[in-house]
Amino acid sequence: MSKKTTSIPVHSLPKEYQEDFVFKQVTPDDLNALNETEHAHRHDYHIFSLVRTGTFHIEIDFEQYQIQAPAVLYIHPSQIHRIIKIEKADVFLLGMNSENLNPDYLRKLEQVILHARSLPVKSAIYTILDQTLILCASLFERKTDKLYASVLKDCFNAFVGLIVSQYLEQIEGTDNLSRYDILTKKFKLLLERDFILIKQPSDYADALNISTSYLNECVRNATGLPVSHHIHQRIILEAKRLLYYSDKSVKEIAAELGYDDYPYFCRIFAKITGTTALAFRNKITH
């Protein structure tokens, strides 16, 4: 096994993409060159994929997905992922940093969609997505055009907007959500932002200006599970990432995740996963 890094690898925009956009057709021959298969990693930009034909296998945050065409997939910069294989597939990847994304689309991605899964698309919307993708491909090559970056940014955002709208169609609109659902969404946004700093349900309740008992009531009604479960699950996910993709000790990882009480962290990890942190590391790295 190759030597681990001390932190999760983060891939930045390749140097050849000078205008802060990535546009790439991915084939089986491309995977090794893209460094997408050997090690899981994060990107510091958002990835939007259109699977046009075939089957696309990818691992995201320790879960493997088999995506059948036609489908779209969004990967948030916080998500660790690795392309496993492509079976006779035609897959296009479009990457953009947050600065170039339409602010409204970015808000939806950060506040509503966040860690999405792949989404199958119907033939009518697939045709529009494909036509927009072809236009993006043509404009991407016209690097000497006047206003190249501005035009490309607008075209890429049109493609992103179509994908965002598809995800939003799968999510019940805020007007139809119950009070429980609305507060649960707000809690999950806070959790994603502050899980290293805030560990107690009461602190999340205070941030939302409601009682702890009411927050638990809302989250239980919306998800079937208490607030503490969601807090622990988010922390353990990050712990698993670090156990696998870094060579930090369990004690160092506990401290990085905000636990000064190392034995307490170990007890939480064992309770949630059914195994010790060291046993988990040994299992997934051998």
UniProtKB/TrEMBL annotation:
<keyword id="KW-0805">Transcription regulation</keyword>
<dbReference type="Pfam" id="PF02311">
    <property type="entry name" value="AraC_binding"/>
</dbReference>
<dbReference type="InterPro" id="IPR037923">
    <property type="entry name" value="HTH-like"/>
</dbReference>
<keyword id="KW-0238">DNA-binding</keyword>
<dbReference type="GO" id="GO:0003700">
    <property type="term" value="F:DNA-binding transcription factor activity"/>
</dbReference>
<keyword id="KW-0804">Transcription</keyword>
<dbReference type="InterPro" id="IPR014710">
    <property type="entry name" value="RmlC-like_jellyroll"/>
</dbReference>
<dbReference type="InterPro" id="IPR003313">
    <property type="entry name" value="AraC-bd"/>
</dbReference>
<dbReference type="GO" id="GO:0043565">
    <property type="term" value="F:sequence-specific DNA binding"/>
</dbReference>
<feature type="domain" description="HTH araC/xylS-type">
    <location>
        <begin position="185"/>
        <end position="283"/>
    </location>
</feature>
<dbReference type="InterPro" id="IPR018060">
    <property type="entry name" value="HTH_AraC"/>
</dbReference>
<dbReference type="InterPro" id="IPR009057">
    <property type="entry name" value="Homeodomain-like_sf"/>
</dbReference>
<dbReference type="Pfam" id="PF12833">
    <property type="entry name" value="HTH_18"/>
</dbReference>
<protein>
    <submittedName>
        <fullName>AraC family transcriptional regulator</fullName>
    </submittedName>
</protein>
